[in-house]
Amino acid sequence: MSNQITNTTETGKFNPISFEDKWYSYWLQNKLFHSEPDEREPFTIVIPPPNVTGVLHMGHMLNNTIQDVLIRRARMQGKNACWVPGTDHASIATEAKVVQMLREKGIKKSDLSRDEFLSYAWEWKEKYGGIILEQLKKLGASCDWDRTRFTMEESLSDAVIDVFIDLHKKGLIYRELRMVNWDPQGKTALSDEEVIFKEVNSKLYYIKYPIVNENTGKGETSDGQQIWSQPYVIIATTRPETILADTAVCVNPLDERYKHLIGMKVKVPFINREISIIADEYVAMDFGTGCLKVTPAHDKNDYELGKKYNLEVIDTLTEEGFLNEKAQDERYIGKDRFVVRKQIAIDLEEAGFIDKIEEYKNQVGTSERTGAVIEPRLTLQWWVDMKKFLEKNPQVLDAVMSDEIKFHPSNMKNTYRHWIENIKDWCISRQLWWGQRIPAWYNEKGELVAVAKTKEEALAQIGSSFNGDIKQDEDVLDTWFSSWLWPISVFDGFKDPNNKDINYYFPTNDLVTAPEIMFFWVARMIMSGYEWKGNLPFKNVYYTGIVRDKQRRKMSKSLGNSPDPLDLIAQFGADGVRMGMLLCSPAGNDILFDESQVEQGRNFGNKLWNAYRLVKGWEIKPDADIEAEIITSNQKSGAWFAARFDEVVSEIDGKFADYKLSEALMAMYKLIWDDFCSWYLEMIKPAYQQPINQSTYDECINHFNQLLSLLHPFMPFITEEIWHGLETKKEGESICLAPYPVAKGLKNIDFSKTFDAITAIRNLRNAKGLSPKEAFKIIIKANDETAYQSNEFLIKKLANVSEVIFDKTAESGQNWISLPVSTDQVLVYLELNIDVDAEKDKIQKEIEYLQGFMKSVDAKLSNEKFVNNAKPDLVEKERQKKADAEAKISVLLESLNSLGL
RNA sequence: GGAGGCAUAGCUCAGCUGGUUCAGAGCAUCUGCCUUACAAGCAGAGGGUCCUUGGUUCGAAUCCAUGUGCCUCCA
Q: Which nucleotide is nearest to A674 (CA to C1')?
């Protein structure tokens, strides 16, 4: 690779776009991300498979950046890192898209056979599937692409079917007629987790139901108060179209207002069906009128009531959400439920059945995928018996609670436990075609006769005495029923349970995912891990936040507030985008995305780039040609940076151990920007047009390389580019495999006094508006001069000082201005008249502050209870504080004196 | 309605088991600087009643309680 700096514009700005694609191809060519089992320790991550037809959004960017950081770091640490990519067939979402595409072509799904439809779907998948994976490459994701899997490919589908059969055998799966969440647009059942509740403004209609026997329309309470005089009861509902399916009215048995009506009948408006008034404690007396209409076919709770009281179930809706003939009223049959809702309200009003209409806010369930309003519907579905499943696998909860599987942040454990402890059975059948078809077989009467992979196996199972025909279940399985097997199935752990891969890579290490799919996916993977591998599927779960815009709105297509990640990458470079996302994303916290963060990321790249330009621009001479004083100083500086670097490495290790990636990155940011660029490079930088000595240069390159290695997981592209630029590398070498820095436990080298003195002088220059070119003469007045003496050269260089005098007895005079540096003084000679009063003022203020501080410390120390109760070393520290403050005050007083007080 | 969480600088957050990490970081703002790697930069500065009110304690941003506001999940 070239050793030339080729990507710099005339102004010194770098252009990340120019090398990112180059390096990604290089990595692929050299198979750096490919993993095969070997003797090394494995480090495995399976990607949360994105929808096969999806496109990259900001959430993916965040999620995959984090995974890439973890996997790249592990790879550099010498582990056998394996990041398995893939996509999810996403039955509802994909089927909806294919149906839409066909509709645009003028083809109706209902006109196609199952096979015809599926061939269209596969065609669509081949064409658009995997776009998202290509996009991940732009981000720098170091997935092992040779291992790319798809949840509907043959081997994974087989696993799904086998698992279904296995669970059925174990008695953990059953088929039952139950109330489910029905998506009238997707025409399928949904699990509870796929229903999203949204608050909507709706209306509460108060409808009069005439009482059949009018004589009893009057009522009295036990103390003779008249409370009811109308010949009807009033019932409040938000869904007036469902009255056509009412089969009872229910009141609370304790409700004085209605006690006398229990057992009587009312008529449903328009259709005049006579229904009974029953009593059950379930009814809330304070909601609406306290009188509930019971519609067992269209409400979960009503269904339960219906079962309890043996009520008729009248389903008035078609699978598309239209009213059917059971609604009885010709005006409404064949119309959409929302159309009917409006119309029936008008009709009821005209007919005098409406008492009043109120504005009302309520929660309406909608389909996560199609957005359609969910209708509770009674259908035959397949279920996983979760209670039984968990009784069999108690580790599912225990492993998380005991941190065997660690959640980051840990407070997600509570949510997890709550869900597990209140778990409901999982509805796994979907009335769709795109997905794994349920391996259940029915005879001509529609009775379940076998659960088997193929028709032959099914027939064999039934036995030779059977001579009729059997048909396979029309439904497919919930997509999550394949996703929950993902960490096992990507390694063919079902097909071949003892293969090399599954034995090596499973259990995986980290899972990075969004908190909203904890139930859909994370919990269920834990279940499948214990059920089929008898082990946890991963050791750490990192929950990312939700990416929101600056106004805290969730980023979404419909709001149009989400930037296109690829545009961002094109504008700022992948490294900048990665850094921008990570800087503000502590685990579990939502990210308020703002383009300025990405800009900051890019600026950081620019900083690093310019450090590189600086170093590469130096002329190198042998040590013998350079003044010894410079070399000595450079050696000290190098040792200082080495120690500082070591300190940050161990700090970063700690942050990674806690999965605090944004803090690790911030530590790195400061190390590079402040310690390396602002201090170290300035310390060793030769004077204008002067050469640098060889040993210093070599050491600097070494430090630079170490920094690049440390940074590489976060910013893979620029680090690779510079790494190759610093020294010529062999073809095929890459920073991806460079050893990750390890903390050596070096002793900290304290330059703080030197730095403070330099900063104080720079400060003075700034305050007085003096040019940095003007060199000063200074006197250092310190009890312990060694800290300054050993760095005299540096002080001169970095603060532009012409002469340093060490004098313990010096006094500031007319032209000598005193700067306090910790407990010492730096006197700077200025060729200008000092505003003595202003200086005195400044010093006076400082003294006052310190005296106040002393007072508070004294108060503590003179408090017997403090001295007796506090830890001894703490008391000692307070004494030290006092001593320091005293010393500082005396220094300041001296300064005051010498100013002529 | 149930469960959990959060409230610290203009913004985003850190602050573990109370006391030198105790009022911090980054960004933003302001003031100087085109200083020979970098204006995508350099050198500085300002900025907070640690949400309210009580309590525990020698000592509270930190622990407890109350109120308020916000968020998430579940029904």
A: B42
